[in-house]
Amino acid sequence: MELTLLLTLMSLRDQFNKLTGKTQFVVARIFLHLGGEEVSPLLGILNQAARQAIEADGDLTIVGEGLVEICQNLLQYDTYWRSAANEGDVFWDEGGAGDYANELFTDSAGRYLSEPDLSETSSNPNQNLTLTPTRNLILMLTVAIEGEEPNIETDLADMTAMKTALKSLINLHYQERLRAIYVHFSPARFGDELTDDQVLQNFPELIPL
């Protein structure tokens, strides 16, 4: 009864905010776990995107271009998708959305083996691939979106739903509706290994696809 009343009140609040012209913001974090030694080349793409974002001082257009490349490559690697999860919330003020996005950023940055190697020595993918390849790779994408986005505001622990969500992220970049983009991944350094047990221990949210 209390849950039904809460959902009703939330729905009425959303309708009121729409009528008064307030802008909605969706903040979401997407987890995607890939498995198999063949996923190691993705580390080069992820680290390159991270370096470009830092060099561009977080310019949202540059970061968004990196996000597009990441999503396109993830879609090509769908054979290696193993599990996924997502979470998020809806806000009617930009400050609240920003605070929640920063909260998710801090959590993702503190996840196991999620500190990237941004040194110039890691920029040669051929050199990096001579190291022991990782068998597990977990990507954490956090975005703040202006307006509604049903393809993101749904359960993404499903192959079809995840593919649709990644394609939507690409479109959101070109529609200039992304207000924040954070990309984290584990392991973030070539040569680091994320075992199956470590996946279960450090990423309990994941649901098999």
What does it look like?
With 209 residues, the protein is of the alpha+beta class. The chain has one domain (22-208). The protein has helices at 2-19, 41-55, 60-76, 94-109, 125-128, 159-174, 196-202, and strands spanning 25-35, 81-91, 136-146, 178-186, 207-208. A five-stranded antiparallel beta sheet has the order 4-3-1-2-5, sandwiched between helices. Helix 2 (41-55) packs antiparallel against helix 3 (60-76) and helix 3 (60-76) runs antiparallel to helix 6. The longest helix has 18 residues, at 2-19. The model is unreliable at 1-13 (pLDDT under 50).
Strand order of the largest sheet: 4-3-1-2-5
Return the domain count: 1
**Roughly what fraction of the amino acids lie in strands?**
15-25%
Task: Give the terminus-to-terminus CA distance.
Answer: 33 Å
Characteristics:
209 residues, alpha+beta, 7 helices, globular
Give a brief description.
The protein is α+β, with helices and mostly antiparallel strands and 209 residues long.
List the helices and strands and how they pair.
Elements: H1 2-19, E1 25-35, H2 41-55, H3 60-76, E2 81-91, H4 94-109, H5 125-128, E3 136-146, H6 159-174, E4 178-186, H7 196-202, E5 207-208
Antiparallel strand pairs: 1-2, 1-3, 2-5, 3-4
Helix pairs in contact: 2-3, 3-6
